[in-house]
From TrEMBL:
InterPro entries: FKBP6/shu (IPR042282), PPIase_dom_sf (IPR046357), PPIase_FKBP_dom (IPR001179), TPR-like_helical_dom_sf (IPR011990), TPR_rpt (IPR019734). It catalyses: [protein]-peptidylproline (omega=180) = [protein]-peptidylproline (omega=0). The lineage of its organism: Eukaryota, Metazoa, Chordata, Craniata, Vertebrata. It holds the Pfam family FKBP_C. It comes from Cettia cetti. GO terms for biological process: piRNA processing; spermatogenesis. GO terms for molecular function: Hsp90 protein binding; peptidyl-prolyl cis-trans isomerase activity. It is an enzyme of class 5 (isomerase). One of its GO terms (cellular component) is cytoplasm. Keywords: Isomerase, Repeat, Rotamase, TPR repeat. Belongs to the FKBP6 family. This is peptidylprolyl isomerase. Its EC number is 5.2.1.8. The keyword Repeat applies. Residues 8-97 form the PPIase FKBP-type domain.
Length: 251
């Protein structure tokens, strides 16, 4: 059986299941533009498919033949799958994300969370951000926003030394920038501006944060503020096409 740590993997997979000689389709998600993230052992419970996926790498495609003991057993799955049936699966692995440490962290008490080493805390928050990035790229912006905010809450769990706080702030800066862009996609410009300004509190010369604030102000028709933010961003990155195009739009 796959180990418990491997079962913490979240993956996105395109799959099609067949009976017979690849001629009778009984299940598929091939028509889905953005297959959902599924967890081995929870959303994917077919033993043969779990083992097969754990032998694959991101971007790989495979054909699997599962005898009944690795598939639906002696009973089958009426009415689609008769008893003692060998099934065939065509699989493509689109992505893998390991959620083991996030899952373990969320099961801890607040006191236990606060006592974790900083390195572990940063890793958990980075994994949550990775989940957020995944959902953002799939255009699931509300889910991405929730993941980024969860990462921020994880980073807020401890009081620390100045050196540790510097590392935490570096992680928070990335999340503020992610949230600013995500709220722009959600057409919540005031929230986008808020997180852009939080990023600027940590790094006044961050061109990306200035650009996000300029975009948000432009959306809210606060043209003077937008011009100020975008001009400051342009001073830092004078040849940035996105910044220059936004200034043209503002004009």
């Amino acid at each position: 059986f796959p180990s418990s740590s491997l079962l913490a993997l979240g993956c996105t997979v395109k799959y099609s299941g067949y009976l017979g000689n690849w001629n009778k389709l009984f299940c598929s998600n091939g028509n889905s533009k953005y297959p959902r993230l599924m967890k081995l052992g929870k959303d994917i419970t077919l033993w043969g498919l779990e083992i097969g996926l754990l032998s694959m790498t991101k971007g790989e495609s495979a054909l699997f033949i599962f005898t009944p003991e690795y598939a639906y057993g002696q009973r089958g799955c009426p009415p689609s799958i008769p008893p003692n049936t060998t099934v065939l699966f065509k699989v493509e692995v689109l992505d893998f994300i390991d959620s083991e440490e996030c899952d373990a962290f969320l099961e801890l008490t607040c006191e236990q969370q606060d006592s974790l080493p900083l390195e572990k805390l940063l890793k958990v928050a980075a994994t949550e951000r990775e989940f957020g990035n995944y959902f953002f790229h799939k255009q699931h912006f509300k889910i991405a926003k929730d993941r980024y905010k969860r990462a921020l809450s994880i980073l807020g769990h401890r009081s620390s030394s100045k050196a540790e706080q510097s590392q935490i702030n570096a992680s928070k800066l990335l999340l503020f920038l992610n949230l600013s862009l995500t709220y722009l996609k959600l057409e919540c410009a005031d929230r986008a501006l808020k997180y852009g300004e939080l990023a600027l509190e940590m790094d006044q010369g961050n061109a990306k944060a200035l650009f996000r604030c300029g975009q948000a102000c432009l959306y809210m028709r606060e043209y003077s503020k937008s011009r100020d933010f975008l001009a400051r961003a342009q001073c830092i990155q004078p040849f940035n096409r996105d910044i220059n195009n936004e200034l043209k739009k503002l004009a």
